[in-house]
Structures are given as C-alpha cells and as structure tokens.
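We modelled the chain as a single entity of 308 amino acids. Its sequence is:
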Amino acid sequence: MKFETVEKTVAVIGAGAVGLLYGSRLQKAGLKVQYQSRTMAGIRKLEVDSIWGKEDMEVEIFDSPTKMSPADIILITVKALPEIDYNSLIRPVWKASSVLVLLQNGIGNDEKIHSLFPSNPLIGGLAFVCVFRDQQAIHHLDYGRLVLAPYGKEKSIAKELADIFESVSVPVEVSENLRKARWQKLFWNIPFNPLSVILQASTEEMMNSKHAVQLCRDLMQETKQIANAEGHSISDDFIEDMLDKTRKMKPYKTSMLLDFENHRPMEVEAILGEPLRIANRQNIHAPKMETIYHQLSFLEERNSKMKG
C-alpha cells in the first residue's frame, strides 16, 4: 500500500488541537483531508501557528462523519472517553482498504478498534506535543514528535506514514512494540495531566516545585512497576530523561487542565483508571496513582454538575 499520491484521502475523526495539527501536516504533504469536529464545523479557513511554520489553510470541517467521504487513511484523534461510540464515528468514512491510525492518549483502545475492524490495518500513534486550539486557530508551542507502531504486522505501512509526516518536518519514530510505546507515553500523562488539574498548575510551575517533581517521580515509579509487570522493561534513566525534557518545555497548560477549565470531560479512565485496573490484575499496589484517580474523579463529577 502506497500513500505518495495526492489522490489519497484522509478523514480526521475528533479533530481537536492534535487532530487539526497533524491533519494539516498531511494536507500540506498533498493528501486530501476532511475533518470531523462538532465544535469547529463549518470553518473554512484555519490559522496554523506552529513551530513548523505559520500559515492559513483552507479546510473542510464537518459536524458528523456521515457528511464525509470514505477515506484511505482514517486518523482517529477523538478524546479517549468511555462513552465514545467508535463504530458510529468510523463506519461512515470506512472502506475495506482503509488504514486506521489511532492517535490517542491512554491504553486499551487499540484492542477496541481492532475488534470492530479486524481486517483493516491498524497503526497506533502517540503525539509528544504541546498544542492547543481556539475557535479558528491552533497554537503549536513546542515538540511534536510522533511515535507510530503497528497493532499487528503492518510495520511497512507505519513506515510509509512516517515518511509522509517526515516530508513535512514532523519527526517520527516507528516502533515495533505498540503496547510498550503506550506505556512510555503514560509515564508523562499519568503524573502531569492529573496533577495539573489537582494542583491547578502549568508544567513550568510543577517543575519549579521540588514537591511536585517528587510527586511526578513517584507516580512514574508506580507506572514503571505496572509496565514492567506486563513485560515492558523501562529504566529509571527513562524517568529522569522525561523529567528533564519537561523541565526544558515551554510553559504549557496540559490538555486535561484545559478540558477541566472549559468544563469538558477529562480522560480520567484512559489515563488513570485502565492502568489501575491492569495493576489490580497484576497484584500491584499503586497508592499514589489510586489517590489521584479518586481526587480527579471527584473533580470530574463536580465539574460536570457545575456545567449543568
């Protein structure tokens, strides 16, 4: 399967900041891209303010995938929430030959997508990026590296996708171990997303506090225990490297903090709930992770009531 020609089509499902950023890069690479977003439907011009360049792009954004065309590549960037009906979102743009790319936080949803579309190639994706959006613009502040990994044996397809992204300045790593890659992203998401909400702090504020840094390190150690129990060896050096990269990051409000401030649902279950369920199955006690899970769940419940 080759993606080099401009005739290839892309459907971005759940186009928030991440979906718009990486969809716009595919568009710049010459692919025809359509986007699905309930909050940005109807917008025809998108301002892209990125470390890779600033430009205005003509876009097609629809409120429902039923209004979109079947696509060669389906880029799924919807938030990892328990209530998401993936079948109803993907099926309208699906073809027997579609390549599915799940660019999402958390762990456990690759299996769900594969169970719905077992005959389609599935590539898992992880975005290490600082990006947010407002009504007609996306603001890409820092980083931007993608990790792509096949769910099955489609490494050649992952490599072809990587080549397209790299042709428009997106750094990409192709991994052979999707599950391990998901855990590695959780080493950042588990401490920084929840603590940003609980502490009401940016990444810079957390990294400037020895107390917050220690909390992050402790949560990473618990994450390491769970990942190692699944057979994914991750060293302490990886933890220190991730803390160092966060320390050098431009000041940034996490996506979870932005969701909380805007009374949107947070990815509590994908980032904390599912790792804790895996820990329970492995007979691993993760007390700090369990504590912030209950704190964040309380804040989520209260936030949803305030919205109502």
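As a brief sanity check on the tokenised model: The radius of gyration is 19 Å. The beta strands are 9-13, 32-36, 45-50, 53-58, 61-62, 73-76, 99-103, 122-133, 137-150, 172-174.
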